Amino acid sequence: MKIGFLGGSFDPVHFGHLIAAQDVYEQYKLDRLLLVPAAQAPLKPNDVQSSTEDRWQMLQAACEWDRRLELSDYELRKGGMSYTIDSVRHFRVQFPGDELFWIIGGDQLPLLHKWKDITELAKLVDFIFLERPRHPSKPHPEIPGLRLHRCDGHLIEISSSELRQRVRAGLSLHYFCPQKVIAYIEDKKLYR
Questions:
Q1: What distance in Å separates the CA atoms of residue 33 and residue 98, rounded to the nearest whole number?
Q2: What is the distance between the alpha carbons of residues 170 and 124, in angstroms, rounded to a whole number?
Q3: CA separation for the pair 76, 73 (Å, rounded)
Q4: For residue 38, is it within any domain?
Q5: Longest dimension (CA), the chain
Q6: Cα-flanking dihedrals φ and ψ of residue 85, to 5°?
Q7: Which of 76, 79, 163, 170 is deepest in the core (most CB within 10 A)?
């Protein structure tokens, strides 16, 4: 099987995340695609503002109807700093004979050499990076054994931090997030 993993803080999950997931799923004909919310991302130390439970509930609300997307709470249960290498080791044991793909934004390519144990990681998983059509990818340092695949998608300029600022400013999240996520944010009074 071909299994993709899309990690992130998902604080909140938005259409940019979901469209990216769909683009990779379709372009690479994946059999499964798991969304993997991070407990704490090492290269974005201040990125998580809502609780683990709130982020999990928003992810469930966003994609509960879509059978193509699955959720993994591995990093949330593990807690602490979420290093991709730890997750990939876990998933490699869980899916020993399958092709594994870690999905990243093209903006992460120049930072890949900073990822923990990147040389081992490059041996365990292929990377799919998302770029907009007709936009050149950014240069990245050489990493032995790195297998990179480009996904031309419908990337939308939305960031979770921008959405949190919109909430604080009293602006609408409509057309940025699924309606159930917006309702959850309003009900729990998140990001105020």
A1: 13
A2: 44
A3: 5
A4: yes
A5: 49
A6: -60, -40
A7: 163
Q: What is the CATH number of the domain that holds 119?
A: 3.40.50.620
153, 27 contact by CB (below 8 A): yes
Q: For residue 93, what are its two tokens?
A: 């044991």
Number of domains in the chain: 1
> Could you tell me if 20 and 107 are in contact, meaning their C-beta atoms sit under 8 angstroms apart?
no
Integer angstrom CA distances of residue 124 from 28, 115, 133: 18, 14, 28
3-state secondary structure of 104: strand
**Band of the pLDDT at 134, cuts 50, 70, 90?**
low
3-state secondary structure of 46: coil
Domain range for residue 16?
Answer: 2-157
| 3-state secondary structure (DSSP) of residue 181 | helix
What does the DSSP assignment read for 115-169?
STTHHHHHHH-EEEEEE-TT-PPPP----TT--EEEEE-------HHHHHHHHHT
Distance CA 146, CA 127 (A): 8
Residue 133 has pLDDT above 60, yes or no: no
| pLDDT given at position 152 | 86
Length of the chain in terms of residues written? 192
On whether the pTM is more than 0.90, the answer is yes
Which two three-digit tokens encode residue 145?
């054994």
